[in-house]
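User: When convenient, might I ask for sequence and structure tokens for a protein?

AI:
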Amino acid sequence: MKNYTKQWVTVSIYLIFISISLLGCKAKNETGPEPEQKPNILFAIADDQSFPYASAYGTSGIKTPSFDKVAQDGILFTNAFVAAPQCSPSRAAILTGKNIWQIEEAGTHASYFPKKYPVFTDLLASVGYRIGFTGKPWGPGNWKDAGWLQNPVGPEFNDKKMSSVPTTGIQSKDYYGNFVAFFQQKEKEQPFFFWYGGHEPHRTYEEGSGVKAGKILEESAVPAFLPDHELIKSDVADYALEIEWFDSHLGKMIQYLEEQGELENTIIVVTADNGMPFPSAKANLQEYGTHVPLAICWPSKMKGNRVVKDLVALIDLAPTFLELAKVEEVPEMTGKSLSKLLIPVPEVQSKTHREFVLTGRERHTHARPDNLGYPARAIRTQDYLYVRNFKPDLWPAGDPEPITAKNQLPSKGFKSLSPGFHDVDDSPSKLFLIEQQSNYPTEYNLAYEKRPSEQLYDIKKDPSCVNNVAEVPFYAEIRKELRTKLDTELNHQGDPWVLGFGDIFDSYPRMSTMREFEGFHERGEYNPAFIQKGQVKIE
């Protein structure tokens, strides 16, 4: 009897324990499932890198193992386009998810960034993300006087410096070290967005650095719009070396994330803000100005080793980041989320992301009297590129003004600045074309001569945009169709150039250095000749 009682007591205690445990489990389940962890985002953006300059695309003379790894672990995009072929308007478009004609001063190079336009970095911060950048953020331009407390990209992490760099053209900023400093400051479970803005491959380059590093000139991928000459090949080799430097820091960041156990839940995006700093590329709406590399991976969510040929725009990144971060209140954006391309939904797999992409340009450098830009818009389909030049009487690369003692600017690494055409970055390639005009008239004309109001390129036959077929009868209907589509979209998006007040872009101030051209040349001031009635100026 004694033993029985003892056993009964033991069993009772056990049953009570089980009951409490079950009640605890029930109570836990009643609270619902644990909220899904928000993804980290590492956004790597090179400065002036054209498609297809990455080894994942099969381009010779360049090795980008980090970009290639992201592409292998996720998606390699073959048709990604920036909103503008210049640094600051392209970056502003990425941040806002809007085209350059929708963001006023921020749509021109080196002006203001109006505070009234929300940026995705602030929206990510509002839901708990730690934000930071190293290298180049939004810029050049003025954000302080427009009401921002910090650069629109976020807080700066640029204190770490390299003890040495391979060439004089490469920045001394330790991008990887700054990323580590940022990571170590965030809370353990806090999601992050980090903007790695390499200054490379922006000019200037140390002339001959590519060959010095072991690159073979015959392997340099020279576009068809440039002469196949040893000097050009050497310049392209220097360019490739700087891309590889950018890629090397990305690789270190990826390795660090893996060591910290954060790689699986990190979306990694690798791209560029505009095309290569060569004649007929950067600051132009042709392919090598707006078509950029793009690779995206998310190891825990995305199926890897895919190639996507759909047309995508970098303004699509803002809504993508906000959707994947589950930001509920998102302002109106022109960009379209890429989420269904990244993580395909069976019923929409057959649909095309975009029928076309739009690009545009306004002022680049101070390259014309009155600080005038070169307004143009373009529509790109899978097969064709159509460009509308609103002021064909202007020089597309800037006025061919000779350099004088008054307007000469400091030069890094070159004996002298090239004469005129200041919308083209100073370089050996630029000067070569000017000096060798008689030997390479086709390449010279493509880069520097005035252009007709309409340009049309058959991309499948002419990916380098050498032959304008706008006046060829065979393409007449295609030109008409694309012109109509472009006008319709620009009107819908409120582009001042199709609404009758496009000159407003020439009123916007330039914050960077200005040359002694005739007409308006007051740095940081609105151009009174083009201020529209009722225009609100940023003070």
Summary: Residues 230-259 form the longest helix (30 residues). Confidence is low (pLDDT under 50) at residues 1-30, 409-416. DSSP finds 14 helices and twelve strands in the chain.
